[in-house]
Structures
1.
Amino acid sequence: MSALRRSVVALSVAALALGSLSACSAGTPDPAPVADDLAAAINSGDFGKVQFASSDAAAAAKAQKTAFGPMGDIKHQSTVSAVAEDEEETDGVKTATADITTVWDVDDSDKDLSYTTKAVWEFDKDAEAWKLRFDPSVLAPELEDGGYLKASYQAADRGSITAAGGKKIVTNRPVIRVGIDKTHTDKANWEKSATKLAKLVDIDEEQYAKTVLAAGDKAWVQAIVLRDDSTREVTDAQIHAIEGATYQEDEIPLAPTRSFARPLLGSVGEATEEIIKKSEGKIKSGDQVGMSGLQSAYNDTLSGTDGIVVSRYTKDNEAQGELFTAEPVAGKDVETTLDMDLQQSADELLEDADSNSAIVAIRPSDGSVLAAASGPVDSGLNTALQGAYAPGSSFKVISALSMLREGSTPDSKVQCPATTVVDGKTFKNYDGYPAAKLGTIPLSEAIAQSCNTVFVNQGAEIGGKKLAEAAAALGLTGEDGTGIGSVLGSVPDDSEGTTQAANMIGQGVVQASPLGMATVAASVQAKSTVQPKLVVSPEPKAPAKPASELTEKEAGQLATMMGEVIDHGTLKDLNSLSGSKIIGKSGTAEYDSERNAHAWAIVAQGDLAVAAFVEDGDGGAQSAGPLVKAMLQAAAK
């Protein structure tokens, strides 16, 4: 129960006991009902039920609107705390006085603004009615004609988003707000200057010119906010060369660079009408709030509580005194597991990507997400954590686990024909599959060379349920524990026929995110099922353990086969890297009749697992392979 409602309940109880708080003499009616009518009028602004000895309902309503309007959406409740007929008459006129207590629910704390005013009625013998001697001080203590109460806010310092160990990622950084000051140039230049400035900062010229012209004659109209650091390409001289163009220095929460984990971290901006409405009074016009990503998901944590001062003002806008003060409470930091160097490396690799792409790096030993980059940076999509695509042959690690659980080993002999048919549908190996690796080969070689037909032919025997269990054991279909609403993957347990056959090679109806496939590689490297984590404070709800978990023996067998992918298989370009053993798997998933394909590569080395994805690629090894190689090299520096 809010403090306001508690106050209202308490005061309502007092109102019920008015028999002990009110009194009237013989021949005059009880003043309690008219006091209640006044309290109701102060609450609603409708004084139609109030009779006046001075003023009238319209004037009182105007005074109430003037007095309380600047308080905005802050709710108030007025109640009668005491009422009684005065013992002595004034100039032969009987009077009654009431105490009106008004409570303002100023913020979310238990601290409210509460004050008591006095209202006086005189008894009109002819009308046999109590009539109010209205004065603005009935509304608030010492309030004068034309006076008002106003709430002023002091923005709380926004919390930062930090990397592992508390190193700040998003924090206040210098910017310049570039715009046109209409008072700095003649009216004849406004449109021309606006168009020139819009062209300089690369925004819509026509729209900005319209905005400038529509603003007041003395307005300063912002065009854009630019980082004020070494990356700023628009110079002071270029801005000042345009008549009326100027800039204001400011600081806003920003990441180290424009591209740094941009879709993951999100942005901060002025609250929209929709956000304000959904907040149910917590957010007001002009507030800076998280608009997307972590900034939005953890806005309540990061934003803190604004300070507020309620003051009484005269009609000439002079402050007379503070009635309520609450200091701002700074927001709290949101700590992530990100490694800033690895994230920067991943961002740079994808910043200007030709199609939607992603790189995710995980520390297998504890599931920490060290990097989650999505490209190109201007797409705004969080492909790394929320994209869902057919994983292609990278999924064969899961299919291989399902076969190991049915008794196969890396040395088991399997048949790899050039083509195979399931329920009338023909499946074949990828173009360029080495002919020398057809026929009878070890299961490990089927993984190394990525033979499709081996796994397609095992689909019916494995079945949907066992394939789904293998996916769960490798962390692909677990509950999200990142704290940011991530997608891992989906593997239906009831697929049959050609759908199940296609599922075995990562097509059909199975889907995975780059995070999900990085988790698969991490689970193999960790020798147990990994559950990725990203936000560590405030701590999100822990995900449930999967029903099927990876064993150390199973992980060892998978690692052996994935090691051959690097040694002499589809990712052999990585075997030139120094350091500990590398394991991996590439994948290509055609997604239309023109054979356009998603490209995948997953690898692990030491305590690092990486997945790379390119939506429109030439092949897993060709398009995604260089990305995972670059990440391993970056980690080794």
Note: The chain has three domains: 3-145, 161-326, 340-636.
2.
Amino acid sequence: MYRLLSLCMLSLLSIAVLAQVKLPRLISDNMVLQRDTKLTIWGWAAVGEKVTIHFIDKTYTGTTGADSTWSVSLPALKAGGPYEMEITGSNQLVIKNILVGDVWVCSGQSNMELPMERVKEKYPAVIANSANPAIRQFNVATTYDFQKARKDYESGSWQLANPQTVLQFTAVGYFFAKTLYEKYQVPIGLIKASVGGSPAEAWLTEGALKAFPQHLETALLYKQPGFIDSIRNRDQQIRNNWYQTIWQQDKGLHDTSPWYDPGVNTANWKTMPVPGFWDEHGLKGVNGVVWFRKEIEVPASMTGKPAKLLLGRIVDQDSVFVNGRFAGTIGYQYPPRRYELPAGLLQPGKNTIVVRVINNAGRGGFITDKPYKLTVGEETIDLKGDWQFALGTTAPPLPLATFFQYMPTGLYKAMVSPMLPYRIKGVIWYQGESNAGRAVEYRTLFPAVINTWRKQWQEGNFPFLFVQLANYMETKDQPGESDWAMTREAQLKTLSLPNTGMAVITDIGEWNDIHPLNKEDVGKRLALWAEKQAYGDQQVVYSGPLYKGMKVQGNKITLQFTSTGSGLMAKGDKELKYFAIAGADKKFVWANATIEGNNVIVWSDQVPQPVAVRYAWADNPAGANLYNKEGLPASPFRTDNW
């Protein structure tokens, strides 16, 4: 009987807990509610349960429906706060420190996801002075779902900007928010929902994928029960076997003395310059493990203190040892290598730095044009130059693992769907690198993302502001074709959709890094578009020159532009650069170009009968210098459709 009564009491308690009012994670302490629009507060409770909300001296009620969901409408509110909200049903919840302001969704791939922590060396003063309770972020953790659209997130909370929390803010989003707040003094809430490497199709609904049959077919395949588990298990087994093999065969780990030991005999080691790729120094086509070692002389003034070891970027993985002690490891190629060394690790005189590099596929080594140095306070030791190296083991290339989060519709269902009832000001978007090999498709795929999100949010044509691809990869001596230029054109064409905006950043990329560190100018240029599209500023110059049309006059072509601001200029030089011209033979050559009013005149003695002009048409149009006098660069363009 006692056991039966206990079970009954537990059952009743469970029912009571299930009946309690619950809230989605977005509706929580420190949230920012969108101003000047009708709001929805929603959650879950027992069927038929009455829910009451008390907020800013007013009371609102709603009733839980048959699906256990309730929602309560609030009228449009002016910017302000902080406020508290009481939500009462069978239980009572209190949400504290609420602000009313503007909410922006920050989405796309890694360049939007990239946090302030990754750029902290570039912006130390900004981070130190970042404390501002009016700028907040909700971080949506990376997840995916192919079965159904989710109703809530499994984790996440609103964080106020300060020198500690801001390190996890999206860097682009933070500079965007900071710029807008400084101008309008309105609270800004950022919802960061970005996934590194994600293609546009991952952010589409299943219905929208019907216009892209190949992506719909993939989505339906991943929807099949057990399909993901089978691939995951296969991939994991392949990776486990690969890493186990290189661990067992790595001579640097199983020699008489491990190769990170300062006393190891390196008489037979060779040398190669660092930074650089090892395929240029006798290891062509080698994947596996290569050990690098450098001895340095450290003055007594640099010892007894914490130190910082900067090793640029390394392809693909590295483990670092200083004087035989493990100093840190990073498992993939993109993050900057910044290792903090404790006081006492460095010693006066000879010190050894050893780097064990694992390369999975492609070229292994150290990325050039990055910092390689040891610093203590103001003192620095340059680590570039010859390093000793030895081959630990070779291995066949490791097959690329399946990234489920890149598959069509998975990110939309898991990361976008739960926030659809939450009212927003607009979206800022930085994506396209992962679609750059399919630029023609992107002409329709990217607009489909914008149209789909607007349809699903049911807030009309809210501002959708995006970043055009930065300049990247090596420069070319001659005009030619470019997937990245084609993708930038697809982005440029997307401006035909209402209430969109495009930040041009072909002047602030890095040739050897798909993640350029200058995120401040990206955020500021997006903010200029927001000032125009979201805040109605009719005076702001929000864009650099955009190609409008052309006219052939003899052996010259006259180009017309919009968004010329207070006039066109050739930045940093008297001559315009990166214009190319062609005749009917479609063979482009570098051209002369000069500014006349708000037009640009282009010609070449090699092309007496010109037909078409291209500007900055390359993966990396470094040196392209057509700007308006407000300092905003012109978008790359072409007049042809070849």
Note: Residues 227-249 form the longest helix (23 residues).
3.
Amino acid sequence: MFMPTPYNNRDQGRIKELRHLIYEYDYAYYVLDQPLIADFEYDQLFKELEDLERKYPALITPQSPTQRVGSAPLKTFAKLQHKVPLRSLNNAFDRNELEHFDQRNKERLDLSKICYVAEPKLDGLAVNLCYQNGILTQGATRGDGQVGEDITHNIRTIPTIPLQLRGRNVPNILEVRGEVYMPKVAFYQLNQESKLKGEKPFVNPRNAAAGSVRQLDSKITATRSLAIFCYGIGEVGQGNIPTSQNRVLMQLKEWGFPISPYSQLVCDMDECWAYLEKLSGLRSQLPYEIDGVVFKVDDLTQQNSLGFTARAPRWAIAYKFPAQEVSTQVLAIEVQVGRTGMLTPVARLDPILVGGVVIRNATLHNESEVQRKDIRIGDRVLVRRAGDVIPEVISVILESRPENSTPFVMPQCCPVCNSEVVKDQENTIARCSGGLYCPAQRKGMIKHFVSRKAMNICGLGERIIAQLVESDLVKDPADLYQLTIEKLSTLEGIGEKRATQIVSAIEQSKKTTFARFLYAIGIREVGETTAQLLAREFGSLTALMASDEEQLQKIPEIGSVVAFHIVVFFRQNHNCEVIYKLQEEGVFWAEDGIYKEEDSHHLPLLNQIFVFTGTLAAMTRNQAKEKIQTLGGRVNSHISSKTNYVVVGTQPGSTLNKAQNLGIAILDESQFQGLLD
């Protein structure tokens, strides 16, 4: 029978002392970049701690510096839900786009100057670290931004990630965001080892870092010399967080997280551009790969006011450095149809290595772009990875053009469903008009159709919709109403109880309103407010389907673009057939006078125009905008004589003076809330 070695107080005290010393030396080395002792001395202390822990295994804790060697291999990764989503960043590729980002923020905040925190954009893997009472408990990949993979066992092996936070005022729950990367030297050594073993080398440090972090065997991860720079926070429990991005970075550093030594506060576009030029010049000298610079609004209150789009924060942008250019041949030009119906020409290329990645395809964006560059099949072209990521064709090498080449022409009918292809007013973007029918748009169309503001069918999430479409159970929205408990039960992860709930929700959705139905069928440019206007003006679907562009434009809020898309939508036989099928399946709504009475009750702010200035305390501008739109109103960024109300928060800008001069009604936040109520 195994008997643990009894430990004495002296050895127990020495273990605590060694751990504390190693924590401090690690902090000085990895975070402050100021080594306090020689490597040999550090190794001797570390070995002494290992020997003592081997002698007294009962005293080993998960937070000990020795516990970074990895654990038993996993069979698969579990999924972890991020408490606060990890969103992507919008990109800028030139100074005009960067200045437009700055100007847009100034207009939204009604300010003349905004300060930003600038940081190198590492070419690595985004991760989320969760600490409870200062102890590392979970690590996850970014995943889709909502759900990531549980890589805790691998994260613990990275020496620059603190297992236990230092200092005071650590929140009881803290999510920290960072970028795991592989230094250039470590990448080179790893590929040399792979070649000696006859294994396939990694194409670039980012792939090497991502592959290392996602090893099922964390002992392999521990050998890969990974590191991290942290750049932000997610969920925060009890505790105070600084009020600016720059101070957040300083606080992270005090807690023991490595941050970029090149982060800097910049307060105008000239300073931003000077920072970009400095980093661009340093790029080749840095010990790790970067592909650009990230700019974030420094003031967290201003960040909150700016809010988010569906995929990215409005208060941050990634400026991407230009990439290497190479030449190759265009083998073919194919047209792809996206989930929103947009037609995109794609060049099929003779495979070529660009920036460490083999490129076989490159987007040609749209017909106008192809014509402007005059790209043809058989041409020899210059290719680069825009922002080091997206392959694009820069120009044609005309001297190498084949004699029999012909210009590219966008098809007039959808290559997937043969519906009419329509173009926007600028004649640049082409779209398939068969929205309810086109297989390429099917998943996106169904997702929109069942959404809360459309038909409001609960229980049909993105994963289930994908299964329904891929199994051919649903080819158009009308097929939803033919789903049974038996059919749904055949899908992965759906039992009889859930299937019953979904079928019940589908049945309940049959009784709707004309406006909801119009919004649900996904006519381009017809949002909630426009759908409500059309329902009120026409009263019946038959009358709307029979209308022409001239008749539609008699409605003050309906312009030529919206009228065009409505007429084209109902001109497609495929769309009309799906609408008739929906009615045959029992979808109905009250029309004429009954609908108008309901409409007047729900749209008390119809056509009223609002402008905001200053910061609201009880809600963000996005939340306020949604409330106004729900009640039929509109929000503009600039004041004019047509503005009905100016809502004033704290620290208002010049908009307030303009409103007073124009005699426009001014509401403080409490009056605005009263109006909403």
Note: The chain has 25 helices and 24 strands.
4.
Amino acid sequence: MSGVTGDGAPRRRRVKAEPAPTTPDPIEIAMEAEAAGVAPRGIAHELLANQNRLVQADLTHRVWQIASERAGFALKVLTGVAGVAVAGALAAMAWQASRSDGLVVEAFSAPPALVSRGATGEVVARGVLDRLGELDRAANSLQSVRIADAWTQDTKIEVAQTGVSLDDVQRLLRRWLGHETYLTGEVVQTATGVRITARTGVGRTVTAEGSAEQLPELARQTGEALFRQARPVQYAEFLVREGRWTEAKPLLAQVLQTSDDPLTRAAAANALGLITAYSEFRYAEGIEWFRRAAEGPNRLLGSLALQNAAGVADALGHNRESIVLTRQGLKRLGREPGAVADWYRAGFRARLAALEFDYHTAARLLRPHVGRANAGSNGTYRNTYSYYLAALHETTAARRLTATPYPLTELSSENWPVTLAIARAARAQGDAGPRILALEAFSLVQLGQPEAAREVIATTPVDCFFCAVTRAMILSRQGDTAGAEQAFRAADRLYPGQITTLLYWGRERLRRGDAQGALQIFRRAEKLAPRFADPAVWSGEALLALGDDKTAEQAFRKAEPLAPRWGRLHLKWGEALAKLGKAAEAKAQFSQAAALDLTSAERAELQAVTQKRAQ
């Protein structure tokens, strides 16, 4: 249809366009054929195959690309982890190196003539090393020295592509960061033999010279000289334990003048305390040295120094000061870990129990540690444990522990001839301290020599409680009852509640026939020391003297768990049971007493009782 537009222009006829013919897609044809189960042929087949190869190649490329990306990420992570591990290992090595503090012996150089005879540099250095180890063990110091050689420490593990071994790295770190002292030296032939020269630094040398046959001994001499030069405090401690006091003292004084290390100065002060107190017998000055040592940075050394001070306070007869120092030592030790700390801790706790007259607990606490020496200590607790057993009246067991008679053991077992001999031997060696003088005078009193005892005790100080007790005992045995009572009261005021004072006071009253007065003293002692068997047993004896057999038997029964192997306890218990008409029980107690430790007087009493019962 034709026409015109509104503006007069002729209209154009719209014709519908037909779609252009399309060429079939070979790939689609091939896929349709594949889907219909008809194998494609010709170009369609080739196109489909090529398309598959392209898709597979693209997929493979993508998979490898993803794997490569992940592997790269993992490698980066592993590299980072390895870096952190290496850094951590180096940090650990550096920390260990910074704490290294010992003696490292390098192989000495030696002439070919000696090497051909087997005297190599390593052999000579090994002799030096052996002597250093012997001295360190003998010193038994809390600051034990690490001693090693430099020729057997190579780990043989090398860092790849560097040619550097881990041992080289560690050794370098120790030299940079540590405090090790390297000992070097050489052996040279002289006109008369050989000379060993060793050094611990520039200008610090020691020499030993002699014949070639003396080379092993020369190596030992060199080792000792090196130990003295490199570790003067530990060498001084070795001298103290060897009893070479006069050699040790100037060496320690020099350390205090030259060293600025607080730990070294504290160790030197502790050793000087031992020399001052136990060699020169200047006890008060010794305590001051120990107090200085206790202010050092090491807990173990500080507690050891306070333990030493407590022992010296005992020697002065200052019981209260000894208790205070012992408590301070335990507090100074705190919760310090390790076997050495446990050893000291057991000693402190046992000592505190003993100072409170609980010997049963003291023995139980110390028993697992007896016989095992520990660093810093010259003992093995044998003497102390022996004393605790003697205080429990287990005399035979106590004496088995010590090679020679121990003063406190013999005092507790009332072996007066032996205590007198011990005291006089100590005085002959120069120890005229208050405790030794009081021990001698007290033994003389018990042996019936009060006048001789008075001469010995005259020079002792008034603030020594055992000296005060001895003065009271002398007056009592001389028949001065009023003077003795006054002296016992003075001793009691000096150290209120000191059980030793009360026991001997009560026993002197009982000996004079004042059983009621004795019972008052013993009952007071029982309240102050409820874990101590002696006050209860002596109360029982006072009650027997007063005719109160039933209460006496109860007192003995009460004391038995605290000192189960005390022969006198079972003897007197049997006596109380016999008076109560309990013959079978009495016989059992007498039999038990016969199997335990008794003094000669007690055994004679038991024999008399047994004979009387047999009649």
Note: Residues 42-99 form the longest helix (58 residues).
